[in-house]
Structures are given as C-alpha cells and as structure tokens.
Amino acid sequence: MKLKVFIFFAMMVAFATTCFAAEHCTGIETGAKAYNEGDFERAIDEWRTCVDSGIENSDLYYNLANAYFREGKLGFAIYYYKSALRLAPNNDDILHNLKYAQAMTRDKVEEDGEENPLLAGLFKAHHALSLRTQMWTLLGLFWAIALLAIARRISRSSKAKNVLIGTMFALSSLFCIIAMSAGYKIFVAETDIEGVVTAKDADVTSAPNDRSQTLNTLSEGTTFEILSEQDNFAEIRLGEKIRGFVKKSDIGIVK
Questions:
Q1: pLDDT tens digits, the chain, 255 residues: what are they?
Q2: For residues 8 and 107, what is the distance between their CA atoms, to the nearest angstrom?
Q3: Do 180 and 188 contact (CB within 8 A), yes or no?
Q4: What is the pTM of this model?
Q5: CA-wise closest residue to 67 among 51, 91, 86
Q6: In this structure, which CATH number among 3.40.50.1980, 2.170.16.10, 3.40.50.720, 2.30.30.40 belongs to the domain 193-254?
C-alpha cells in the first residue's frame, strides 16, 4: 500500500514538474515592445522564438494571433487564437477575436443548433479551472487528505476522528471530480485535434501524395478536424461532405 502511494505521489510530482516548469523568454518583452511600436512583423519573429523554444502560454498565443491578424495573415491568426483557447477556454477576449477572425474566412461551416443550457453550464464548470490549476489543486488536495489521515490516526478523540473522516470524504470527493475533469481534458487534447489552413489555400486530395486527385480546395483560415497524420500529409474531415488529405506545410495543427 505504501509503495502504491509513493508511486502515485511520484507521478504527480513528475507531471507537475513537467507541466509547470518556469516559462521565461526574453522575446516576450521585446515582442511586446515591437507590437506597441506597430512593428508587427518583428513582434511575430520575437514571439515565435518563444513558441519554438517550447513555451505554451495562452497570453503568448493570443498576442501572437493579434500580431498575425494585424499583418493580414488570417490563417495563422486563427491558428494561434485556437491554440490560446485550448489553454484558456473561458477567455472572452480570445473567443471574441477568434469569432471576428473566423467571420472573415471564405469557407463557412454550418453552426450547431441552439446550445443546451444544462450542457453549457457543465461546460463552463468543466473549464472553470485550467488543466494547470487543476493539477496544482489535485496536488494540494492529495497532501491535505494525507495530513488529515495522519491526524486521524494519532487523534484520541472519537468525535475528532469523525470530523476528520467527514472532511477527508469531502476532500476525496472533490479530488475525484477534479481528477475526472482533468483526465477528460487530457483525453480531449490527445484525441480531438483541429487543423487550420495557414496558406492562402490548401488542396484536399483523395490520397496522401502529390499525384492524387484534388477533391476540394479550402481557403485560408478554414478550420477542420484532423483524423490522422501520414508523413507530409494529414487526413482531415470538414462537416459531412469534405474528407481527404492536405499537405502539412499548408496547415497548422492545434494541439
């Protein structure tokens, strides 16, 4: 039992260390200075160096998207708005700018029907905390439950033990709820993958090679579902009618 607890704790610490490593890049400040001076191309170059170094930050993605939008590069703007939205799903500024940019695309996809209020409420609750915050919360709850268990073991008062057991049960229930939400976010991040056309247009072909038939052509900024990746091509689906392969060089994959 002690070994299982130790292994679980080690996994939590390893995950936290990987996810929450300090994110620092001098390009963030220099990019902001360039953006404020109206030099959007330089701002993009500075911020891209931070992205290429492995930094994943919703504010960085959002600012990069704004710079691309100001440069007239709609595809990259939508790509980075969506990347930012994955990390901050309830951010109204990101949602507003994304919708504004998507309204400028040529390819239109039918929107879903009226949203169910109950599902909308559950969605907001699910995304009330970011995955990063949830992992820190789980780590804190784990320690709190462990300390309560120790306190219960050394307590001599039956009344105090009952209070401690009740508190442990409440915290354990909260731990399970947050863990399920975090687990689902990780699952979606791994399986629900979107792509965005970042080139002026992208041909949808019948097979993952340059000799195959062109079925459709998607314009810059069009968003679609990524089904799989095969060498230099990605298998995509857009609505019920469009399915095929596009060159990875023409798109950005939101992960």
A1: 444 444 444 545 444 444 443 357 889 999 999 999 999 999 999 999 999 998 989 999 999 999 999 999 999 999 999 999 988 887 899 999 999 999 999 876 554 445 556 656 666 666 667 777 888 999 999 999 999 999 999 988 888 989 999 999 999 999 999 898 888 767 666 667 899 999 999 999 999 998 999 999 999 999 999 999 999 999 999 988 899 999 999 999 997
A2: 47
A3: no
A4: 0.67
A5: 51
A6: 2.30.30.40
